[in-house]
Amino acid sequence: MWLLRLAWPLALLGMAATSDPSPSPTAPPPDAASIFADLSAAELRAVRAFLLSRPELGLSPTRGGPLAKNTLFLVELLPPKKRSALRYLDRGGPRPQRQARAVVFFGGQAEPNVTEFAVGPLPRPSSYRPLRFKGGRAIPFAARPMTQREYELLHRAMVEAMAPLERLLRDATGFGYGNCSRRCLTFSDIAPRGLAPGERRSWLVLQRFVEGFFLHPVGLEVLVEHRDPDPRRWAVRQLWYNGQYFSSPRELAERYEQGTLAVARLPEPPARQLFSSYEPRGRFSTGTPTAVHGARVCEPQGRRYRLRGNRLEYGGWSLAFRLRSSAGLQLFDLRFNGERVAYEVSVQEAVAFYGGHTPAAMQTKYMDAGWGMGSVTYELARGIDCPETATYLDAHHLYDADGPVRFPAAICVFELPTGVPLRRHFDSDFQGGFHFYAGLEGQALVLRTTSTVYNYDYIWDFLLFPNGVMEAKVHATGYIHATFYTPQGRRYGSRVHSHLLGNLHTHLVHYKVDLDIAGTGNSFETMDIRFENISSPWSPGGPSTAGGATGVGDGSVPSGGLDPVLVPRRYHLAVTRHHENEPSSSSIYNQNDPWEPLVSFESFLRDNETIEDQDLVAWVTVGFLHVPHAEDVPNTATPGNAVGFFLRPFNFFDEDPSVASRSPVIVRPLDPPTFSRLEIQRWTPDTPGPCAAPEPFSYNGTYRPV
């Protein structure tokens, strides 16, 4: 049995393994992990070239030109069906054909739509076929994610629409939207884009374009209708300025010219040490040094993990991994000492629900898979984002681009000293001495990437511990999504700077955990603890004592540590049967059509199927309520803003499997009670050796077509 423990009090899940009538698994082929590997740059180019060569698709280049055209938006691996993969991995069956998932925007036809295709076989594709969502629904064109081209056209539309407001903007902010040189305004857009299916109306928050512009709203929000593929038909539908609504830019401009407008005049931003920047300012009171390097991770005798392609091995652990452009890290074939624990553990979605007084704030419900959460995996900085000693891996994405784009150092792998022993004991003799001391240093292997979804940065970790425990964790950092301060807004957040409101919001992250423990036939149990009063058997008739008892309830959902009133979700955890047409709990289309989502997680649960001795999937939701405060400036800090869950063995092994580690230290006295001679047992070299200084810090930060 394995235990899935949520990072909240008293939230437990037991997965009880049952016998699997299938033959015992064999060792997987040496390159088995590659069936789950992301598409190479060459494969991405081959898929694009093949689809562009098909005249019936009528595809045009993605960048530039009109929106009313057919374009290839996304290409990524289409993972093999689970049944085919297991037949290959466990029973020596045929290797699954390698295929791509391709997303095409058909905007150049009478009835625009979005269609997904399976393309293969790779590396030389020769055919394609449509992919269907559960229920067979078509993908509405209005549900498509935003593209760089649509943003360019939105900017052009805003330049024209803001022309009547140029004097107001320059007088109030010192910045302009049109011909502005270095003192320009920009905008952040929010979603969902409307209030009903088929709409595409975005509220845009205008900000000064300075370092950390997310914290520099100027008090103007603009609602733009941009549903039509022809931008000449786009229009500003409404504006909000400093607490008031206006029907058009002209109305707002006239109110300003008449002197009847409450103008929010902003102070000139300083040239240095802007509050939204990372530039040091102030001093710590103790005077302890900060202008020197702090502690570092080192590997004095080399790496203790093995990385071969997308196969990662560490201690008893082995797994395959990939970085989906659509949603991020995905683990496959997770094993401990050769036995599969999970077929898949993956990030599904990250959402943030906001409250506020401004229209943009009250409308904001971000679903980050719709913003290319897995494709915004920018370069990790050595020594900051990951240790200098880490292994860094590049990623290639074909997302809203005319070819694969290389993201250098997008993934890192490193062994992390946890700073706390994995286990230890001091066996006192209670007379000033001891019988023995034993301890095992605490370390874990970390697989990490980040997603910078506009203002927020998510740090995604999977940690592997030597005792058979796996942890999935996400840290939230980056800039808060903030709006212009008004007195009415204080009901929905905190005033974090003079003209800035940090809006109350809830972060929720969804994971898929497809556990296959001792086979695919698993059952689901929760274990609850209750107290009962019993008479002491050794003292009949005496006072009662509390005896613990466990109550096991099949299929119930555990409680969590978040107030359900504040968190708009139904389940901390849900368990369903595995179905090939339910690969993900969300989609890149749900953000812009949440009212009739292409993937409705609720439909996974309506089947009301038995979950006893079946191939089961656990869907885990973790999250936290974020009440922004002044200390979120310039960025939200990672301490206290991390959530996750653990997979832990529960009577699966005969003992703690970390006893196989050669890293413990045992100390025994040879001459008690004098304790002048000690026997020190260790299975590693006596001294770890020096930590060599790495190369000077360097950083590139570019991501280019390849």
UniProtKB/TrEMBL annotation:
Keywords: Copper, Metal-binding, Oxidoreductase, Signal, TPQ. One of its GO terms (cellular component) is plasma membrane. Residues 296-532, 570-658 form the Copper amine oxidase catalytic domain. The keyword Signal applies. The modification 2',4',5'-topaquinone is found at Y456. Residues 1-18 form the signal peptide. This is Amine oxidase. It comes from Podargus strigoides. The gene is Aoc1.
